Structures are given as structure tokens and as C-alpha cells.
Amino acid sequence: YSVITDFNRLYADHPGDIQVLDLTMDNCTITFTAQIRHYVGESGQDMRGCGLWSINVPKQVAAFHPTVSLVFAAMMEQADQRAETTDPWTNVLDPEWQLHQLDAFGKYTTALGSTGAPVLWADVPVMRFMVRNLPWLSDDPARTAALNQEIATLDAQRADVQRLDYASHLNRPGNAIDTSVRPDGIHLTDAAADFMVGKWLIPLLVA
Q: Among 69, 121, 204, 205, fewest CB within 10 Å belongs to which?
């Protein structure tokens, strides 16, 4: 969210130079799923309304006509998921569910690129809930690796997709978390987001 906030701030400061269409889906997955859970024993968070992006995003993209689209996948894509509330839990490590997620990612890419703009998918850094008070599931580094493989597959399969090397800027040896950059193990500080956007992302986009 800090990265998106930075883009919105840039738009406010330079309205003639950059325009931002913020399609952030708070507490939502791209994957079509009924529920997610982040830890063992969680009853599940309702995701059934999140699939409305398939209706809303094409309309917003058609009206805005972007020159480039950026996707930063959230930890929710690594959480346990299930298509129906009565189904068993599954996740990104399951090959069958990987295909389901890839299908959704592909449709999301098509929606974002419907006016001809390229779609840039940032790969995902290792994340960790720093408060270890629950049996967390979704911060498993193996799940991050699997999600990144899905993004790599999307990149390989589609000419309109480019993978952004975002994770390497945040990953540390041994899957350690630099808490000066991500105090909660997930989200960037405002200062870190300023640096990433100003020193890396904007120069990359205008190169």
C-alpha cells in the first residue's frame, strides 16, 4: 500500500506528468475463491465479493486507458484458500490450485491490458508475520516461491506480461526480514516506499 500511496502522491504533485488509476483491492484476492485463512484454526475470511474485479476492472481500464499497468500480488494469494466454503483448504503449493490461480491471473492480466498497455507483475519478496502468536500459514517461504513461479509462468506464456524484479530489493540471506524496511515483516515503511518508487520504479518505467 505504501507504493500505491507514493504514486498517488506523485500524481498530486505532478498532475500534468503522471496519472494514477488505483485499483488496489483491500483485503481481497485476485484468485476466485470463497474464503482464505492465514493461520491454522482461522474460520476463514469471506472473499466472495472480491471476484467483482472481473466486472469492474475492464470498465475502469477502458475509461482510463493506461500506458502501463503494475500488479503487486498480496500475501492473500499465499494464504489457504477454498473455492467454496464447504471445500477443504488448499493453497498455492497444490498443482491443481496453481492452475486455478494462473487462470485468474491470466484473466486479470487480460482485463488490465484490454486497451493495449503492457502489464508488469512484480515478483513477491519473502514475508513474515513478526508477531509469532498464531500458527501462521501464509508466510511460508515455499509458498512465496510457488507464487513467484506462477508469475514467471505468466511472463513466459504471455507477450503482454513482463515480470518486475522487485523481490531481490527486499529479500535477505536466510529469508531474514529487514525490519528497518518492513517493520511488520510485510509492508514497507513510507521512507522505504519513497526510495523504491523514486530510485527504482519510476526510472524503470520511463527508461
A: 204
